[in-house]
Design goal:
Elements (H helix, E strand, L loop, with lengths): L1 H23 L4 E11 L4 H4 L5 E13 L2 E19 L4 E24 L3 E24 L5 E8 L4 E15 L2 E11 L1 E4 L2 E7 L2 E11 L1
Antiparallel strand pairs: 1-2, 1-11, 2-3, 3-4, 4-5, 5-6, 5-7, 7-8, 8-11, 9-10
């Protein structure tokens, strides 16, 4: 049900994007951006010994009219925690747990130009959030070349969530700009084998990057 609702939202946003440009009889302005992000996840300390997730996002923005933008976003953010210990016969073990969230989002933004170089914007939308925990364990003995490695996955439930954001865009050249934004994401996940254990990944994120306009 969540999947069908998300696809319906994407279809509605695509219809909104195409309709104004079709009426105007011209091609809409669009932009492609790439940014780095730090996301303060609420329950990060409960999963890993971290306060948040580091990651990046790609942004595709269609601007069919001057003050409205349709955003399509995708990215990945993660946190890592490593522990090591010594076992029998002098073997050393090292375990790295990686928590990942990969969102695909669609939304609307209101864009307000300030002069020729600056834009402020704000809005929000919905997203599909894929979650995964990967555990990599390595084992080796000091002075020996033999090394073993194996992976385990902990299955987490994906989620349909939402986000709201505000940002600033600064044009440095006719087709190149920098942007920065703050956002809040509402999403959570659960362990598939233990549905009563919830991980609340809601929280504030900060992102900065560059954008190409066409």
């Amino acid at each position: 049900m969540k999947h069908s609702n998300f696809l319906a939202c994407l279809l509605a946003l695509a219809t909104v994007a195409v309709a104004p440009s079709a009426l105007a009889g011209d091609h809409p302005l669009f932009s492609i951006g790439l940014g780095g992000q730090y996301w303060l996840v609420k329950d990060a300390k409960d999963v890993l010994d971290e306060n948040g997730l580091w990651g990046g996002n790609i942004l595709f923005r269609i601007q069919p009219v001057e003050y409205i933008g349709i955003d399509l976003r995708a990215g990945a953010s993660g946190a890592w925690d490593t522990e090591s210990w010594h076992g029998p016969r002098g073997r050393k073990y090292e375990e790295t747990a990686t928590f990942m969230c990969c969102p695909v989002e669609a939304g609307l933004v209101l864009i307000i130009p300030i002069g020729d170089r600056f834009q402020i914007y704000g809005g929000g939308g919905v997203g599909y959030y894929y979650y995964d925990i990967d555990i990599k364990t390595t084992s080796h003995r000091h002075g020996h070349s033999y090394r073993s490695e194996w992976h385990d996955h902990i299955d987490l439930e994906d989620d349909v969530g939402w986000y709201a954001l505000g940002g600033l865009k600064i044009s440095l050249a006719p087709h190149f700009a920098l942007f920065g934004e703050a956002r809040y994401t509402g999403t959570e996940t659960r362990f598939e084998d233990a549905d009563d254990i919830k991980i609340d990944c809601s929280g504030v994120a900060f992102q900065a990057g560059f954008m190409f306009d066409f």
